[in-house]
Amino acid sequence: MDLDRRVKNTLFFVSVFFLTSLFTACNTHRKPSPSGYSDDLFTDKLKAAFKPIDTSNTKRIISIADNMRLTYQLDDYQPIWIKENYVPNDAAADLVADLEEMQWDGIDPERYNLSAIKKLKAKMDTTKKNSINDAITFDTALTHSYLAASRDLLLGTIRPKKVDSLWFHANDSSWNAPSILAESGNNYHSLNEYRSNVPTYKLLQNEYKLYHNLLNDTAFRQAIAAIKPGKHPDSEMLDHIHFIIKTEIPWLEPVPNDSVSNEKQIIAGYQNYVGIVPTGKLDSVTYTSLTTPPDTFLKKISLNMERVRWMQKEFGDLYTIVDIPMMELFLRRAGENVMHMRVVVGKPERQTPSLYATMANIVINPSWEVPPTILKQDVVPGFQKSGRNYLAKKGLKPYDKEGNAISVSSLNAGNLRKYSYKQDPGDDNSLGLIKFNLPNPWDIYLHDTPHRTDFAKRYRALSSGCIRVQQPQEMAIYILSQIEKINFTQGKLDTLIATHKSRWELLKTKIPVHIAYLTAFEDSTGKHIQFFKDIYGRDAKLGTFMN
User: Are 376 and 350 in contact (CB under 8 A)?
Assistant: First the structure.
């Protein structure tokens, strides 16, 4: 819902409360409110204004307005944010402070009507006798804002499918803010409890604060303005360049190196940070980045905080994460990177989707069955061009629907699609020697590859969608020996590989695997944010919905 509609809805509720001010209070026994303060007049007016929610049909409780009604219904229509004499309580001040902090999540606090709430609070804090209408307006406005903000923090401000058709990374977090408010007693549950605990999120917040502070940094603005792209930098311009880099990347320090100057190291470090080729030279792309205003970086950071909110709030102590734009994989255990490697991801025309799955087994000497997309886009055109020689070159054997091998001589352009095609295990198999199975509807998995030279390339969006890993044998041995606690050495793996027979190692510990599209993600140290090229062009669409 956009801001104008939310404001109109809030005003609608306010008008309802004023219209119901003529209702007569009923002096019935009430249960204690979350704030510890009860008021019969407040309760009766609020109850008269709200229609009850049918809690038996949870699918109908969708909007924040509905959930606000549910919150008060669960609380027997008691006040939450006020105390005696209709004065805002301490929890109200805490919520106002929390809403102001939402700016560091890349979310405008006015999305939650913060200015209107602060204005009314200031009035109620200083007025000797506040009206029941002001009390109801204030209390319901804060409840509405708390529910909206908590849900946005936990689940995101936008439905992922609205902006990214290949985002399948489900957020399974349970949003129960209505019941938390209704049962909170005197304890205020901070909005921070709904924020992501994924390490990346806090780093993104810190980076957002850095660039936000640069918005009004006169010296930084002047340094940007002093850089003239295309002009050979004199000592004064170099000073401005160094100032910009030091301001944006204060941790960047050159190391003693006889072959690479400090100057070149600093430029290359900056280039790597902003996601461009680290040549160490002041080329046109680097000048463009150096003169990019802080607003642009703020937007990119906010987009990626939203994506992190789309994922689970907690990743746990053991998980693997693949960042697609970074084209790297981390296997993390107890907060440490126990494995870190380059990966090859899907090319732009065959994009790797964002998803969450669990690693169920490791296959040694996997066979490979051609998936439908590759059959359509590669095998059929290849056969039409080169005939049966194409299949022989690729090591593909045809099978019927019952899994029986058929003669290649019986194939023609007319019946080619009737059969499936497989590669036997071996060095030339498209999956290499190791496959990490992650059962999921999109048939995405991690695997070895015979194309080892691709890992040396900076740009590695080269696969048909699945993820090729740089160190498959090392990762398999680590998982089986250190996590599964079985006697599994390099020697044992070599022996199994030499059999050329497929072997499945079932995992008792199902390892969570997060495949995510984050164009701002933590660097290999886990201490800083790094920016990456938007290889699939997804930032622009998300950005239009977050304006």
Answer: no
Q: Which pTM was predicted? A: 0.89
Distance of alpha carbon 166 from alpha carbon 17, whole angstroms? 44
Residues in the chain, overall count: 547
Q: In what order do the strands lie in the sheet with 368-369?
A: 368-369, 420-423, 396-399
Phi, psi of 27, rounded to the nearest 5 degrees: -85, 70
CA–CA gap between residue 287 and residue 231 (Å, rounded): 10
For the CA atoms of 125, 72, 116, 36, what is the dihedral angle to 10 degrees?
A: 20
Identify each DSSP E strand in 20-144 by its residue range: 82-83, 87-88
The C-alpha atoms of residue 49 and residue 346 are separated, in whole angstroms, by 54
Q: How many Å apart are CA 81 and CA 450, to the nearest integer? A: 63
3-state DSSP percent of the chain in helix, strand and coil, to 5: 45, 15, 40
Token duo for residue 111: 């999305």
Give the number of C-alpha atoms closer than 13 A to the C-alpha of residue 430, restricted to the C-beta side: 18
Closest by alpha carbon to 80, among 69, 91, 70? 91
Nearest to 179 by CA among 78, 74, 89, 281: 74
Radius of gyration over every alpha carbon of the chain, rounded to an integer in angstroms: 29
Choose among 134, 138, 133: nearest CA to 45: 133
pLDDT at 547: 65
Average pLDDT over the chain reads: 90
String of DSSP letters for 138-201: HHHHHHHHHHHHHHHHHH-SS-HHHH-TTEE--------HHHHHHT-TT----GGGGS--SHHH
What is the amino acid identity at position 395?
G
User: Tens digit of pLDDT for each residue in 334-355?
Assistant: 999 999 999 999 999 999 999 9
Mean per-residue pLDDT, 429-457:
96
> Which residue in 71, 70, 80, 10 sits closest to 42, CA to CA?
80
Q: Would you state the structure tokens that stand for residue 3, as one six-digit string? A: 């801001």
SS3 541: helix
Average pLDDT of the residues in 230-237: 85
